[in-house]
């Protein structure tokens, strides 16, 4: 009677197993370590933004400082501005808020130093025409307090802006204020919740939230690394048992 064949792991098979295990372990551990780095970066970002939100408002940056601004160091800083709104040049940008779908009212504010773009807040589709909210078209000097937000490039929200048709999907300061003379700020200001006359636009709807799933991603990659190592050990042990028979 012929003895059953033994399924040994050859030297070549063992080499392939070791190489594949090493490559997968390197990949999964590297990805896990990268997610840990991202976790620390995100936690630091959240702490810095929370500190800015808790701080007192400061005057908005003057043109001489605009080149030094960045999302990492200045986004969500509380600032104040004083000037006069140019309501004739307001721009409506598509918005989805806790109040529903509608528009952000983006209006130039002319100050003694420069012209800034202010997101005065949300209006419903029924209020998109300024004639439907005449009390909110405030004349004369005003003081605006809000959050500094870096300009949002065209196409940032899946659809491209169409200035010729008056369709705006991102708050692209350069494009919205393209007809303005002089330097253009690299940011706009989201107005706070101070009520406007007549109740519209509605400010203070800025959502400050950062998705932070890096820990779960890191644990997933490390678990895959551990699973790879465990699977390789089981295959190796099976081969050894076959050799011992």
How would you describe this protein?
- By secondary structure, the chain is α+β, with helices and mostly antiparallel strands.
- It has 2 domains: about 70 residues; about 120 residues.
- The protein has 4 helices and 7 strands.
- The chain has a 5-stranded mixed beta barrel with strand order 2-4-5-7-6.
- Helix 1 packs antiparallel against helix 4.
- It is elongated and about 90 Å long.
- The relative contact order is 0.19.
Brief summary:
The protein has helices at 11-54, 71-74, 173-176, 214-244; strands spanning 58-59, 78-85, 91-97, 100-110, 115-123, 142-150, 187-191. With 245 residues, it is of the alpha+beta class.
């Amino acid at each position: 009677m012929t003895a059953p064949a033994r399924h040994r792991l050859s030297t070549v098979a063992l080499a392939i197993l070791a190489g594949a295990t090493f490559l997968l372990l390197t990949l999964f551990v590297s990805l896990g370590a990268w997610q840990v780095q991202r976790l620390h970066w995100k936690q630091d970002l959240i702490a810095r933004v929370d500190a800015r939100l808790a701080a007192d408002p400061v005057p908005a940056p003057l043109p001489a400082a605009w080149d030094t601004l960045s999302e990492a160091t200045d986004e969500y800083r509380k600032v104040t501005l004083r000037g006069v709104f140019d309501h004739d040049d307001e721009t409506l940008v598509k918005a989805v808020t806790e109040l529903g779908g509608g528009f952000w009212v983006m209006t130039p504010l002319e100050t003694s130093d420069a012209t800034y773009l202010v997101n005065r807040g949300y209006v419903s589709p029924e209020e998109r025409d300024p004639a439907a909210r005449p009390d909110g078209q405030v004349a004369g000097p005003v003081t605006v307090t809000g959050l500094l937000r870096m300009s949002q490039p065209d196409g940032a929200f899946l659809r491209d802006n169409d200035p010729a048709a008056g369709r705006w999907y991102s708050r692209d300061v350069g494009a919205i204020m393209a007809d303005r003379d002089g330097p253009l700020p690299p940011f706009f200001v989201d107005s706070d919740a101070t009520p406007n006359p007549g109740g519209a636009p509605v400010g203070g709807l800025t959502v400050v939230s950062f998705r932070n799933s890096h820990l779960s991603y890191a644990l997933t990659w490390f678990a895959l690394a551990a699973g790879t190592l465990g699977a390789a050990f089981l295959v190796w042990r099976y081969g050894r048992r076959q050799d011992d028979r």
